[in-house]
Amino acid sequence: MTNLIALIKKWNHRRKDRRRLNKQERMVAYKSMICRKAPYVLVTYIPYVFYINEKKLKFRHQNNQEQKSIVKVLNWLGYNVLVLDYMKGTVPKGMDVKAVFGIPPLFDKAKEMYPDALQIYYGTTASWHHQERMTIKRIDDFNKKNHCSVAYQRLPEHSTAEDTADIILQIGSEYTKGTYAEQIRDKIKLIHQSTTADALSCPTPITKRTDYVWFGSGGSILKGLDLLLDYFIQHPEKRLHVIGGPIEEDVMAVYRDLLTANIYIYGWLDTASAQFMEVVSKCAFMIYPSCSEGCPGSVLTMMKMGVIPIVSPWAACDGIENYGYIMRDLSVDSIEEGITWAERLTDEEKLQRSHGAAALVAKTYNLERYERELEAFFIDVLGKNVY
Length: 387
Known about the structure:
This protein is of the alpha/beta class and 387 residues long. The protein has 13 helices and 13 strands.
């Protein structure tokens, strides 16, 4: 009897391992086939989103819902779609592939396997050449200033995608387009990304808010958080709220004994949480001196909540200058200029810019518009497939 129980436990354990493995295998690929005769578009992006509960997508990164829209639009136009994880996927052989669409590194392998297919690079960040150059410069400057040796953060993988692709569909602005080599820019088509957290609105009027917020992901020097800490440490009368990160340990080691009581560091906060809303309700301005972006969803989220942006050109969306402030460079002096500009705004000007920023994002950066622009793009470069 004891041996039988042991065998059952062993069998159940193996069955759990198989289920776990199968789930992991499913997470790196997703197929949407509408007709056996239809050709495929091979997408190298993020298939895991198809295995997430729909309700959980609402407050996740906007690329989750956009991945679903890419498949939906291609199916509308008569194409089968195979989505492969851009990092872990394996490109199958012998498929009828009309186009390869996505991001490296798997994009590079897919276009080598199907060289006759249309190659569409999906630009979700600035050019990797720009990102690498700017990241190295910012961290080298930081290390020199602080006499330390912080490691390079979020260096991009080298890829031939932007050079060899037939066309680039780029999330971002004319500023993003400008990060690419001049000879490449003619083949770049811009698309407006979507935003999530549609239910969020900030009840506190902009005229009752006084504080500043930085809201971003990892790569704190890349995204200019160090410049903000340097400024606010010297200005204890002004308050800065830091959401996201996390701040890397070697960066925090530089600031741990310098941080002042006017700087509040929260780490990651769920955008659907009461604490997130409480923090944003205190903030009139978001400052985001990032050196390399596509079009940061964090800035759009804050604008959607009425927060007025003070950003670098690489963190700006087209038209943002009508509602916010674009920094002239990445420096503490430029941050001071932006804050001086902010403090000179009248209540009426704050209201106009706050309402305008929220209206711009609601009108321009939504999933419906993203899908319309995506459909028009695919019709232009692929056409509708009749099967």
